């Protein structure tokens, strides 16, 4: 996605290189067909449907949103979503950076396997994620569940489980942002710091962290977008215990199926708005990094 | 002795980077570790710095047993080929880094940074970011940063390797002057024999993980211990089976020298003030002769001319002398 | 490391153990259940179809984003990421608003297999685009220009030079896209109607097992999904090597 920097500068270029290019440039016809095809495809598949959510939400002006916000269920669900998402993001921040460092800076047996496994959460069904967590952590027959419950910690059908499910699903995002930057940075600067007398902690805080700062910010923003919207995994782990553990995406489903479409659209719009906002933040931040280099 | 390296061996998997290497470097000297790429010289430097650890052997720095000491406790200054500047810090902050780590009082740090930036002629750039500096300036900043902590030894890993030829030559002279001023024991790695000969007091030639020879630049040039050292320190040609430097070959247009080999000039090449002549001897050798333009003109050398070549009697063939 | 094990590895292992623990019989029962089989078949076939579409469209989109210039392209770039960031349930609602009962264009695709296809195409859109794009950007035009200067036609250049270079990225993206496709849940809940035998996908089927308290069967289906995903990744990797070598 670093492309956005490149794109921006290219579009601004007053003398596009294409004019000077030789006869083997794509023919204009092919170019137009491709361009129209892509725009149409994206328009029908993504842009138009997404904009319709906004339209449906504001069909009666701000009435829909304000109605939704005065519904205690909605407020509760949004709050719960926010809490779960923030907790999951914090966990992924700490462990994501830790694992990225582990993967890039250290050699250990099984590193390649671990590297491959990092992407697993991206390609496992959310329902499977939920199921997996339930099997291990539920209070009655899970592997660790009963013991944890004896310690007074209920995981499944409670917030910790929902946070874990969310963290599971969004785990690769921070790691995948930080790893390439760490690789790119190399370890010269860290070695220089060590030769100047810095210990591991000082080296991390003063040298490594400032270098990967932006990658962490992108990772966190993407992670937040994903966490706010996680549905399947959280639904399985939260169980059907009513309002207490309903997150915003689950509420959308309930409201829609109860024919309270306006509320469903309003909550959807808020979620979609947050997601798109995250994307825009990332898109705006990226060029900055390009300038700094 | 400032740095004592004893029987150090280092392997990377099956590859032996250093094999039973022992070197001792006296205090206050500027020493070059010279050798071809991949010969193990950088590895030796990194082991001295504590950035790599030896598989076997010991390292002593200023009398302190340092073999198992981490890099940060060895008090060495290290300068990297690609500068390893801290990109997000200003020049002054970079230089101050080691002092801040040591929790020195602020005014002392400021004064020391100022002094060092003056020493490396960067005082007017103190508030710039490294990305706004040229390669040569960055390397000078890295040097100031390494010197800031008053290291017992200064280690430079191919410090000028990433710079272009002109800047490289300037910095080389500057490093020599700096060393004469600061007098810290300095070791630098290079694969450029000219750089090593010009700057250092002593040269350690390292090849394929072993020390080939240790000595002053003159010693190495005039009395190379073996073919490798001779070949690495300068050009070599063979006359009557003897290895000689091209500028130590006498050439004449008549058979006046006893034992001279007769041959034909196949090529005359003028490079600035010098002339390189290639002679094919009747014995089947291809001899390269290096002489000044004036000398060549006086002899009136041209291609297809018959000439006689012999080693200059003043230049003792390398291999005949024990070192 | 420990956290990763607690969060990801042990739970996934638990699924497989659970599936195996029920004995071979539960496994066979769950899998040969007609409704489950129909769900699996629908999920896998649709994902194959969507992945094939993505391989073509994704590459074209990446191509346009990298090589073409026109006003508004930055927005296009942003639009690509929407399916990734949008909550899946919202994605379902989004598609429902255009292709559902109140569609402004009069298409009524909800509760049909077309809807399943649409939903999966929506959520998997970014994968191939985002894997191909950086490779295409780094690829030197010199390559293609050299081929052209040697007399290759545009088509030959594309087939012999461009495509083999992009192949690893396309297939890596396809693997992700397929894995995501067979595991999709959220966007389908509202859109597909989840009609047994017709539009019910595997994830929904698993959930109904779970809600019925039959964790063993759910785990069995989950294991099959994991195996299918793994097989797909391996197969695509093999094809990818072939294509790259043929170039």
Automatic annotation (TrEMBL), chain B:
One family name in Pfam for this protein: TOBE_2
EC number: 7.6.2.9
One Gene Ontology term, aspect cellular component: ATP-binding cassette (ABC) transporter complex
Keywords, ordered alphabetically: ATP-binding, Nucleotide-binding, Sulfate transport, Translocase, Transport
SUPFAM superfamilies hit by this protein: MOP-like, P-loop containing nucleoside triphosphate hydrolases
Entry-linked CDD domains: ABC_CysA_sulfate_importer (cd03296)
Keyword ATP-binding applies: yes
GO molecular-function terms, A-Z: ABC-type quaternary ammonium compound transporting activity; ABC-type sulfate transporter activity; ATP binding; ATP hydrolysis activity
Residue stretches making up the ABC transporter domain: 3-233
SMART domains (alphabetical): AAA
NCBIfam families noted in UniProt: 3a0106s01
Entries under PANTHER family matching the protein: SPERMIDINE/PUTRESCINE IMPORT ATP-BINDING PROTEIN POTA, SPERMIDINE_PUTRESCINE IMPORT ATP-BINDING PROTEIN POTA
Full protein name: ABC-type quaternary amine transporter
Source organism of this protein record: Nocardioides agariphilus
